[in-house]
């Protein structure tokens, strides 16, 4: 029997969260600790300057899980360090409305929840469905999520590595298979719409289009678009080791620091 | 003459921001576009569900820069895509109150501003001073920041790589030198304080202590603690390539997807 913490960034009322929790219940004990509202594009934000509250959330009188007035990373940290009476075997985040691939991983609250789980030393996984409409069908994604979570504690991933899973919006029998991918290079071409409020004051709203910039079938976006489940092992080892030696040569002149002061 | 966008996560009134902007003015044209309030630990958050406003910010009647009701990443994206009449040669973020090393890089709004600059294709750098008190002395850090920004466009860093610079809180002549470092492995040991508000309702507040877990003199925290300026080239190439092959073997059984449905 596994103990599983389920969270997301779309908030505790999101359909994808409940599809995930229901799919995982046969595996053991599942507890939901999720943001009390939509938290998309929050990145790996943590609430440090405000108090957090934990409110039992009910739907039709039935206890559903715990709602937290914070970010996905807050939910995981608070649940693991403080709220839960046990340490989870797995942190499962999602199922997100919309793909979290390429550069989107940096902005994704769904992935950041799994990142926080990983930082706490717990095998963690983020799930996203490539569908944006409110009535998206999470059934196939839920089956796949269960199959992956079941295996997660046995994969022996290195500490610090998590799985980022993206699932095509297709019926299960139309999904082509699973591909282990790398983070792709697709990018947003974005801009701000300049508008005026009813009082004549100017405001700006982020808009943009996602540009699929990869052709490599092993890139996350390409696998997904071709109808495959994309599983990317990700890791926040951010050092650009290839640049270290170059910089040592270039900054040699800055040693010792007395040379720097000549810049004054 | 360089064109430099200066931002931060401590907000437009922070002393470290103005120390940085003043230090860079001799290099060319400097424009400040910064959050209208403290935005620490926001990670790489972007505001997508709210309008953003840009307000000219004045101090003693003097124009200082543009304040934005958003995150550091919002400030950079909005400035570069919409507000500025020119494309910056450099995005400089900081000078942050407090070090941004090891795991803190993931949470740091200061670093996320530089990350957004890098995503937009602009050479970018984040500066942090290892001091937390309101009256911190940014003078030495400002001299070092200028020396680094001056060189940044000529370093020929790969697209996607930014510099994360941490500076000891010492007078310039006591700083030992510059070290090119890697992101260290230090971690927060954190917990939530459980408190009651004046109405008897429970709340939780994040607390913690930072555990220096590295001994390697080339780790960012160690260099900084030993009195060196730490410069880490960082890059959001998140794929854990070492795990890709292992996962291909482990998930072989998930291909084709029909096998997954047996998990039902």
Give an overview of the whole structure.
The structure is a homodimer of 264-residue chains. Chain A has eight helices and eleven strands. The first copy, chain A, has 264 residues and is an alpha/beta fold. Chain A has one domain: Survival protein SurE-like phosphatase/nucleotidase (Stationary-phase Survival Protein Sure Homolog, Chain: A), CATH 3.40.1210.10. Chain A has a nine-stranded mixed beta sheet with strand order 3-4-2-1-5-6-7-11-8. In chain A, α1 (15-24) packs across α5. The longest helix of chain A is centred in the middle third of the chain and has 13 residues, at 139-151. Chains A and B meet through α2, α3, α4, α5 and β8 of A and α2, α3, α4, α5 and β8 of B.
Secondary structure topology:
Two copies of one chain form a homodimer.
Chain A (H helix, E strand, L loop, with lengths): L1 E6 L7 H10 L3 E8 L18 E6 L2 E7 L3 H12 L6 E8 L6 H4 L1 H11 L4 E6 L9 H13 L9 E7 L9 E4 L6 E10 L5 E10 L8 H6 L2 E8 L5 H10 L7 H4 L3
Parallel strand pairs in A: 1-2, 1-5, 2-4, 5-6, 6-7, 8-11
Antiparallel strand pairs in A: 3-4, 7-11, 9-10
Distance between the termini of chain A: 64 Å
CATH class of chain A, please? Alpha Beta
Greatest interface and its participating residue counts: A-B, 90 and 91 residues
Query: What would CATH call the architecture of chain A?
Result: 3-Layer(aba) Sandwich
DSSP strand tally of chain A: 11
**SSE string of chain A:** EHEEEHEHHEHEEEEHEHH
